[in-house]
């Protein structure tokens, strides 16, 4: 279960775990939940448990079979640091990533507390980029948890951005992604919230990626800011 991705900051997804539970406001309209329920209704075997956390041991080694270098979003359909995912399973996934230096793996979590708890039991090769979601100021503590993790690249995904983030602690952060919520019942994102994060990133020399304005019709709102796109990515040379 690895598929090409339409997400602007990656190339493909790899889902050795599926299913999750909601932890914060950013989860309210979870895309993974909607998709899992749809696939379950269609009778797709991988989603026989719907959105319940499910381990797919047969997919753990899949990236070892890909020769060509790829940028891979790990667990787009779950949260790798969910408490129902045993540490030894997380370790197996990290060992696969370590064994595949030809690929770049992007891991994103909202369970930053567990990430910080288990980080010292995991290998941190330079091809693993570790990120936390920060949708509003209520969850800013996730950035502090991330800062304790010895990943080569640490990043924030401020999507869906549903509140202002005027004091982001960007020391030790290399990359910030910003995006508005999209789809049915999308919550609005204010221009000034985006401008504030952009300014903080410029001051801290942190790479900035503007994913989308979002809205019910994201194709109409687009992804331009200041009349241009911002598709900045972390530079491993600069981080080193
Ligand atoms: S943590 Fe991510 S996958 Fe899990 S419910 Fe929240 S948005 Fe969905």
Characterise this structure.
By secondary structure, this protein is of the alpha/beta class. The chain is 25% helix and 18% strand. The chain contains 7 helices and 10 strands. The strands form 2 sheets. It has an 8-stranded mixed β-sheet with strand order 1-2-5-6-7-8-9-10. The radius of gyration is 17 Å and the shape is globular. The relative contact order is 0.12. It binds iron/sulfur cluster. The site of iron/sulfur cluster (SF4) has 11 residues, from helix 1.
Question: Summed up, what is this model?
Answer:
With 240 residues, the chain is of the alpha/beta class.
Could you tell me the radius of gyration in angstroms?
17 Å
What is the global morphology?
Answer: globular
Give unreliable regions as ranges.
none
Instruction: For the largest sheet, list the strands in their spatial order.
Output: 1-2-5-6-7-8-9-10
Biggest sheet features: 8 strands, mixed
State the share of residues found in helices, binned by percent: 10-25%
What share of residues are in beta strands?
15-25%
Structural classification: alpha/beta
Summarize the helix and strand pattern as letters: EEEHEEHEHEHEEHEHH
Global mean pLDDT: 95
Distance between the termini: 33 Å
Total strand segments: 10
Number of alpha- plus pi-helical segments: 7
Ligand inventory reads: iron/sulfur cluster
